[in-house]
Amino acid sequence: MRAQENTIKSSVVDAVEDRVHQLCWRYADRLPFHGWHHVSFVRAKAVGFAGHNGADVSVVETAALVHDVNYLVRRNSPAAAGSDLRLGLLADCGVSDDAARWIDAIIDEAEMANRGRHISLEAQALSDADTLFKALPVTPVVLAHRYLSENGLSLAELADKIVGEQGDVHDSGYYFYNPDAAAMYSRWATANLQLWRCIKEAVDDPTVVELLDAVSAVDTATAAAS
Questions:
Q1: pTM: predicted TM-score of the whole model, two decimal places
Q2: Which of 48, 102, 165, 226 lies 20 to 30 Å from 191 when distance is taken between CA atoms?
Q3: How far is it, in rounded angstroms, from Cα 53 to Cα 39?
Q4: DSSP sequence for the chain
Q5: Burial status of residue 221 (CB atoms within 10 A of its CB: 0-12, 13-18, 19 or more)
Q6: Other C-beta atoms within 10 Å of 193: how many?
Q7: How far is it, in rounded angstroms, from Cα 40 to Cα 165?
Q8: Is the pLDDT reported for residue 46 higher than 70?
Q9: Per-residue pLDDT reduced to its tens digit, 58-115
Q10: At residue 223, does pLDDT exceed 80?
Q11: Residue pLDDT, tens place only, 117-137
């Protein structure tokens, strides 16, 4: 484990937090899943993981604050889609160009669809925090419908995305990089992935499709009557 460093001043991190908080509330209707509730959770967990693995805590914290601004640029987009907005926001808040580009690279490196077994300590801390949010037992119950709405996906498309992106990572043994996180949360992650694998199977059943269509029709009629 390398010596802990803090590249970004706390006052600058505070400025980034303020800007992101404002954006999340201003565009709350566009971010029902990736809003401030998600950002603040990932930020808190990422700071803890960074403190444990010796990463630069200030860089990880800042990366966590801006890791999902791509959803303000385009629905259902990769992290890279938010690069210009992210770099501009960081510059406005006083983050140096080198640090901002490092943060942008960490966010790409940590993304579930991109990450490999050997990524930087900073990316590991951010990835574990974001991955934990996905693996929480409450996420599919309380938040999955928000993800569908935010990104314009069907249930089948979300199941394909989750199983496709997470299955190999989970089965290869690096779903979490932090050993304590792996010991504590792997059971949740396994159950969550198994649930989505079952959903993926279920939405191929014609009777289940009829059920979902009927539920959608009721929702549409209720909304029209309101």
A1: 0.93
A2: 48
A3: 21
A4: -PPP---S-HHHHHHHHHHHHHHHHHTGGG-TTTSHHHHHHHHHHHHHHHHHHT--HHHHHHHHHHTTTHHHHSTT--GGGGHHHHHHHHHHTT--HHHHHHHHHHHHHHSTTT--SS--HHHHHHHHHHHHHHH-TTIIIIIHHHHHHHHT--HHHHHHHHHHHHHHHHHTT-S-SSHHHHHHHHHHHHHHHHHHHHHHHHTTSHHHHHHHHHHHHHHHHHHHH-
A5: exposed
A6: 20
A7: 24
A8: yes
A9: 999 999 999 999 999 999 999 999 999 999 999 999 999 999 999 999 999 999 999 9
A10: no
A11: 999 999 999 999 999 999 999
Count of C-beta atoms within a 10 Å radius of residue 202: 16
Task: For residue 98, give both structure tokens.
Answer: 């080198």
* Cβ atoms of residues 101 and 111 within 8 Å: no
